Amino acid sequence: MIAASDLKTGYVIQMNGDLYSVLKFKYNWSGRNSATVTLKLKNLENGSTLDTTMKGSEKVEDVMLDQKEMQYIYKSGDFYALMDNETYEQIEVHKDDLGDVVNFLAEEGIVNVSFHESRPVSFSLPKNVTLEVEYTEPGEKGDSTGNPLKPAKLSTGYEINVPLFVNIGEKIVVDTTTGQYVSRA
Prior knowledge:
Belongs to the elongation factor P family. This protein is mostly beta strands and 185 residues long.
């Protein structure tokens, strides 16, 4: 059991017999009242989301998960194949189960997979990934007031804003938590 105030984004908890992943966490405390926690949870069985508020001292059942580092090897329709680098065991995961991970998933990219009773329930990426710019307009010289950005389409199909000096074919570093440009690779 864990206190609701100790939860963090990414934790997996069990409520009413279902597994939930914590998508958002906000701790609220005011001087006279007891602390409360506002949570946005995702049901790992059916994908539905739940917004709830709990007292900070309320206990919830945390779930022990097995962590594996896996490598993305190919895409087949709406399914992504991941391989365990130690055992070479492969699993296929639907793109809806991966969530925002698909926006930053390049071939041979590393995915951290959490398993509950040998079933994959949660997926995350390293903080930064390197991706190639597939398309962007050329930057105009002299257009440099402030911090000008332009749209760019990455090799994964995801679009972000990049500085004017970034060109097609360049590799850039992207922050997977914010989806923003970090630097050139």
